Amino acid sequence: MRILFITSNRIGDAVLSNGVLQSMLEQYPGARVTVVAGGAATSLYEAVPGLEEIISLKKQKHHIHWLKLWGKCFRRYWDVVVDMRRSGVSYFLLAGRRLIVPAKDEKLHRIVELSRMLENETTPSPVVWTDPLHDGRAFELVPTGSPVLAVGPAANWSGKQWPIDRFIALVEQLTGDGGILPGARLAILAAPQEREQILSLYSVLPQERVIDLVGQDLVTVAACLRRCDLFIGNDSGLMHLAAAAGTRTLGLFGPSPEWRYHPWGADCACVRTPEGYKEMTNHPEFDYSHGVTSYMESLTLETVVTAAEELYRRGMK
C-alpha cells in the first residue's frame, strides 16, 4: 500500500491537515507514505509512520514545480492520493482513491472543512508524530524539573504579533509569586529569522530558567512542547503545533479569524482583540504589507492572563 500526501508549505496549514493523513494511516495499516511539502513544513514529517520519502516542493515560475512533481510520481501506482493543494497533479497519477481538499468555506473552522474529505464523517483532529530520537533530544532540552511555560511571541506577519513587552509582562506575572506557574522555566519558540525581534524576552528570567528552542526542527519542537505545561502564542504554525502535541494552548488573535483558525482541542482556548476580525480588516487604513505596526495593541495583558489562568485550571478540582 502506498499513500501520497500533498500538503501545504505553511507550518500551520500543514499541521491542521495531518489529521487526514492519520486517518489514512489508520485505514491502511502498514502503508508506505510519501509526503510532498514545501519550505519549513518538510521537517514536520520526519517521524511519520511508514515514511518512504519526503519530497520538498519549491515554487518555480510557470508552475514548473508541479510538472517536476508529476515526473517523480507518475511511474508509481498510489493506493491513495491526498491533495491538500488542489494542485491538479493528483488527477494525472495512477491512483485507487483520491481525496481532494474541498473549496474553502470561510464560515467553518479549517478542521471541520477538512472533515468533508473523509467518508466516515469523522473530525480529523491535528496530530504530530515523534520518535525515540526526537523524544530523547526533547528530554535533553527540557529535562524533568520545575514546570515550563512555552511562548511563541513571533508570527509570519508583524500585524499578528502581540507586542513583545506584553509577552515579557505576561511571563513575569505567570511565573512570579502568585502566578499559576511560580518559578517555572520559560521555553521560547520561533523561527531562526525571528530571533532578533524577540531578543528582549531572553532576559525576563534568569538564564538557567530559559530554554531556547528557536530554530529547532519541528519534530523536536513538538516533542519539547509535550513536556511543557502551557503554551501561549500568536496565531501561528507553532500555536497549531502546540495544540497538536497535546499541550494546553492559548492562541492570541487580532487580524485573523479565530472561528476558522483557533487552536483545536479540548485543552485549547483563544482570546482576541476587542475589535472583531471583520471590523479590523474592513477599516480603510488596514494594511497587509510587511513591517506594519501590530494590530494587537488593544489586547490587554489582563485579558490574556485571565484566559491563561482559566485554561490552566480547566478540569482541576
Automatic annotation (TrEMBL):
Alphabetized InterPro entries for the sequence: Glyco_trans_9 (IPR002201), LPS_LOS_Heptosyltrfase (IPR051199)
Entries under Pfam families matching the protein: Glyco_transf_9 (PF01075)
CDD domains tied to this protein: GT9_LPS_heptosyltransferase
Leader sequence residues: none
Keywords linked to the UniProt accession: Glycosyltransferase, Transferase
Domain of life, per lineage: Bacteria
PANTHER family xrefs: TETRAACYLDISACCHARIDE 4'-KINASE-RELATED
Listed name of the protein: Glycosyltransferase family 9 protein
Organism, scientific name: Kiloniella laminariae
Organism placement in taxonomy: Bacteria, Pseudomonadati, Pseudomonadota, Alphaproteobacteria, Rhodospirillales
